[in-house]
Amino acid sequence: VQLVESGGGMVQPGGSLRLSCEASGFTFSIYDMCWVRQAPGKGPEWVSTIDRVDRDGATTYYADSVKGRFTISRDNDKNIVYLQMNSLKPEDTALYYCARAAVRKADQSWEYDYWGQGTQVTVSS
Question: Is pLDDT above 90 for 108?
Answer without folding.
Answer: no
